[in-house]
Each structure stands twice: as structure tokens, then as C-alpha cells.
TrEMBL record:
Protein's name in the database: Uncharacterized protein
Organism from which the protein derives: Circinella minor
Superkingdom of this protein's organism: Eukaryota
Length: 290
């Protein structure tokens, strides 16, 4: 259990909220996002600060030569050639605005796939209880969550990204994608590794398990904005590039851990196949009569 300095047990507070909820929440999957305002009723300000800071992840810094190269674009008036004066679709934004994310990984072992890809980890989670037919037929296989950008290394999924055509970062769609869809998909990827965002704004969500069973979401305090006028090119775009570069380094750190991890336990029949981190909560759906 994750016990805070005040004596509060994190998992117990998550259980209390899960029992009170009438809608699906991340606490049902034992995922804690300390930036979620719902937790302000269950944890004190000091406790939330401790949850954020305990073994907190950090974004690697960009090397100085790349920093100098970015600064060479200061006062360049080229942004208008990239942003057309019309309402773009999600596909337009994915290719024209956030296309540089793909190029950032050109020299990396991490593979970037763009355009509504199904998460294999999410599919495995959803089909974890399937069994051979006995008195009941075998359950139909469920597909994984569709994501806009998928980051993979060999057979492992390392991360995901969602794109939207809305600039309102407080919209319901943004809350659903960054508050439910992305974290649940990330936990599926996280568990899979252990066993073996909207419009012109970008944020980074990092999932880890700093203590015991609960998974934590760490995110930037605000969305970074893609530049829409030449005057803000250097300020806004350089921050996004630094964020993408740092994220790439974090993923490469994970690939190194995967490559160097011992596989000796795979040859031991006595080793348990379960993980200390509980699986995702998958709500059941009932089909209504047409």
C-alpha cells in the first residue's frame, strides 16, 4: 500500500471514491491523477503535493547544440505557410501540425504510427477473460482502443497520443480523452510491458507506479500552444519540440530497460503470472432493444 507521511493510505481513499461514483472514473482502474479536482475532497493540499512529488518523473533536457539550432529560427516569418485559413479536421491537424513528432523519431528504435491505430495492449486487457467454449460459446474478441498516434518498440507499446480539432482544452471531449481514454490505454501498455491531445495544444501524460498497487498520472500544469502568429513562433514551437524530444528520450530509456531486462523467470513454472498492479476496470454494456 502507498502510505503518505500523514498516515493516509492512497489506495483506501481511491476505494472510497470508487464506491461512491455512479459514473466510470479512473479510480475504478486504480489510476490516480492528482490534477483531477475530485481528489481535493479526499486528500489535503499537502497530501496531493506529496503524491505529485514522490519519485516524480522528469523530462530530459535537450542537448545544447539542438537548443542553439532552434534559436536560429528566431524572428523567422514562416508559420503562415503551415496554417491554412480554414477550419481543419483532426486528420489535417495530425499531419500538418503534429507531423514533426513522427520525424523526431526517425533515428530512434521507437516506431511512430499515425492515424487511428488499434492498441494491442488494450485489446489484450479487454480479452483477458476469454476462454474456450464449454456450456457457453467462446466470447467474441474485442478490438483495442483506437488512438491517433501509437509509439511502439518491437512487440511493446510505449505510448499514445490523441488529437482533436477543438481549441478548448476544457471541453468535454478533452476531458474524456485525457482524463479517461489515454490513462486507461497507458495502463494497458504499462501492464503489458511488465508482463513481458487536442487541436493546437499539447500536453504530456506520464504513467508510473511509485509505490505498490496504484498507478499515477503526471502531467504538465498547462497545455503548450502551437504558434498561430509569426511573433510567437520561437516561444511556442520550441517548447513543443523540447517536450517531444524529452518524451522520445523517456521512451528510449524504457526500450533500454526492456532490452536489458532478465528473462530467466520465463523458464520457471512456479513463478506467478499475475501482476501486483490490478487490471483495468471495463464497464459492461447492455444492448437496448431497437
Amino acid at each position: 500500500m502507498w502510505v503518505l507521511s500523514t498516515g493516509t493510505v492512497v489506495e483506501e481513499r481511491m476505494k472510497e471514491l470508487a464506491l461512491k461514483c455512479i459514473y466510470e472514473h479512473l479510480c475504478h482502474s486504480l489510476i490516480l491523477d492528482p490534477s483531477d479536482k475530485n481528489w481535493e475532497k479526499d486528500f489535503t493540499t499537502e497530501e496531493l503535493a506529496e503524491i505529485r512529488s514522490f519519485k516524480a518523473p522528469s523530462i530530459p533536457l535537450m542537448p545544447m547544440n539542438l537548443e542553439i539550432y532552434l534559436k536560429s529560427y528566431f524572428n523567422k516569418n514562416i508559420i503562415n505557410t503551415y496554417l491554412k485559413k480554414r477550419t481543419p479536421s483532426e486528420a489535417d491537424i495530425l499531419q500538418q501540425v503534429w507531423g514533426f513528432i513522427d520525424h523526431c523519431y526517425d533515428a530512434s528504435d521507437v516506431v511512430v504510427s499515425l492515424g487511428k491505430k488499434g492498441s494491442r495492449s488494450s485489446s489484450e486487457d479487454r480479452n483477458n477473460d476469454r476462454a474456450l467454449a464449454t456450456v457457453a460459446p467462446i466470447q467474441r474478441k474485442e478490438v483495442g482502443t483506437k488512438v491517433d498516434i501509437l509509439f511502439t518498440f518491437c512487440a511493446y507499446e510505449l505510448g499514445t497520443a490523441e488529437v482533436g480539432n477543438l481549441s478548448d482544452v476544457s471541453s468535454t471531449k478533452t476531458f474524456q480523452k485525457s482524463g479517461i481514454k489515454c490513462p486507461k490505454t497507458m495502463k494497458s501498455m504499462f501492464n503489458n510491458i511488465l508482463m513481458s491531445y487536442p487541436s493546437l495544444s499539447i500536453n504530456l501524460l506520464i504513467m508510473d507506479s511509485p509505490s505498490s498497487h496504484a498507478c499515477r498520472i503526471s502531467k504538465l500544469p498547462r497545455f503548450l500552444q502551437y504558434p498561430t502568429i509569426p511573433a510567437s513562433l520561437m516561444r511556442d514551437l520550441s517548447l513543443s519540440i523540447k517536450l517531444v524530444w524529452g518524451t522520445k528520450k523517456l521512451m528510449e530509456n524504457v526500450t533500454n530497460e526492456i532490452t536489458n531486462a532478465s528473462k530467466a523467470s520465463c523458464l520457471d513454472f512456479t513463478k506467478p503470472t499475475t501482476l501486483p498492479i490490478p487490471p483495468l476496470f471495463t464497464p459492461t454494456t447492455t444492448k437496448k432493444n431497437q
